[in-house]
Amino acid sequence: MNQYVIAIDQGTTSSRAIVFDHAGNIVSSGQMEHEQIFPQAGWVEHNPAEIWDNTREVIGSALSKANLTRHDIAAVGITNQRETTVVWDKNTGEAVYNAIVWQDTRTQAIVDELAQDGGPERFKQKVGLPLATYFSGTKIKWILDNVEGARARAEAGDLLFGNTDCWVLWNLTGGVDGGVHVTDVTNASRTLFMDLETLQWDQEILDAFGVPASMMPAIKSSSEVYGHVHTSQLLREVPVSGILGDQQAATFGQAAFQAGEAKNTYGTGCFLIFNTGEDIVHSKNGLLTTLGYKLGDDKPHYALEGSIAVTGSLIQWLRDNLGMISSAPEVEELAAGVEDNGGVYIVPAFSGLFAPYWRADARGAIVGLTRFANKGHVARAALEATAFQTREVLDAVNADSGVPLTELKVDGGMVANEALMQFQADILGVPVVRPKVVETTALGAAYAAGLAVGFWKDLGELTANWGEDKRWEPKLPAEEQERQLRLWKKAVTKSMDWVDEDVK
């Protein structure tokens, strides 16, 4: 009875449910991809109804594979793609528009308008974030401004907002029949609306965006009982007791609980989080200040984050848009067929450049092409782009923290790529460490949920679960490392200043 915890991982490309045992091992899982909708250049959407349907499906799949029922599950944790914005009618349960995904850049005009009074860092001291298309706030405003009747319905109190954690929780706990409208501090810290010190919505900023406070979910800690699964669902009456945005969940799953600890997650994008403990550290080097986690009534832990928009999705682009490969693992095979990148560099600024540049005017570029370049060089350059971007973010973390990182814990789908991990160690000049359980995002959500109900007693128990699987030591000579970095930085400059009045 109650010997497992289930985590719902609502990601950018798929929704998963993973069952964990007390040792933090995966017992079973279910996964379903959802459609990526691109109505026009720069726009990225998901269908919220499809996401909810898939979530229900993967819960059933994970339970059935392990021959489990709700009686075996102690708690449900949720982790999610952050910033992806859903606005729905609380009376019908229907979204008024597709979910606008974190990568979407349509709100640049809203960003520019808001930045006229105070610049891009107008609210940064209070919320830790610059004005950017990345965050939920501008997406909510776009929906209210552009969907017919949405603003009037919002002002009448009929519309609710949430990132996908909130959408899944609301539906899981009953939807129109008493669904719980709650988010946690980590997701709230990605909206542009939450005061980092008070952990509450800031009315002045909501007013500046024209967003009614009635739309906003209640902000709770990352680990407490928010409600119970509705009686109409498979997991009926099981407590839902943990929520962490995906990158914070991965940090939690890596047991990086203390100040000075960090991890890098390699997924659709790449996200390096550095724990700053109970201190709010404001970056001077292009990083975001965000919530790391908050357990119940304990004090919040803060973090610095370096967000890279395109890493794994660059490999997806080679597969789906160019047809250069038929499956992601083929990239490693192609890259292994050449000695180096042949002078080719790919800057995947599909959504502009995120940390540490924050340049919305940038677009993707492939530079250094000669007749010598072949598919292998392009494949290698695509992998190396992830490592180069991570190096630039880590340099910013080291500058902000004043404490150079001595090793980097890694997780996410791309860490199975041995060539990438070795190059990552080479270009960083520090060891790269992969844990035994690489599904740390789901594991972090499971940990948060389990702590709230006593399934795990404390953080020490979670730290004891962490185990090292493999370590890569840097092998690249220092002069070659510097040469490659110099060429990468030159390539980045070629991607800038592309978008103007004629180019979107």
UniProtKB/TrEMBL annotation:
Record-level GO cellular component terms: cytosol
Keyword Phosphoprotein recorded: no
Keyword annotations from UniProtKB, A to Z: ATP-binding, Glycerol metabolism, Kinase, Nucleotide-binding, Transferase
Carbohydrate kinase FGGY N-terminal domain segment(s): 4-253
EC number: 2.7.1.30
GO biological-process terms attached to the record: glycerol catabolic process; glycerol-3-phosphate metabolic process
Reactions that this protein is recorded to catalyse: glycerol + ATP = sn-glycerol 3-phosphate + ADP + H(+)
Top EC group: transferase
Pathway the protein acts in: Polyol metabolism; glycerol degradation via glycerol kinase pathway; sn-glycerol 3-phosphate from glycerol: step 1/1
Positions that bind ADP: T12, R16, T268, G312, G413, N417
InterPro entries (UniProt xref): ATPase_NBD, Carb_kinase_FGGY, Carb_kinase_FGGY_CS, FGGY_C, FGGY_N, Glycerol_kin
Free-text activity regulation comment from the record: Inhibited by fructose 1,6-bisphosphate (FBP).
UniProt-annotated binding residues for sn-glycerol 3-phosphate: T12, R82, E83, Y134, D246
Transmembrane segments: none
GO molecular function terms listed in the Swiss-Prot or TrEMBL record: ATP binding; glycerol kinase activity
Residues that hold glycerol according to the record: R82, E83, Y134, D246, Q247
Annotated positions binding ATP: T12, T13, S14, T268, G312, Q316, G413
Span of the signal peptide: none
Family statement drawn from the similarity comment of this UniProt entry: Belongs to the FGGY kinase family.
Stated role: Key enzyme in the regulation of glycerol uptake and metabolism. Catalyzes the phosphorylation of glycerol to yield sn-glycerol 3-phosphate.
Protein's name in the database: Glycerol kinase
Annotated organism of origin: Arthrobacter cavernae
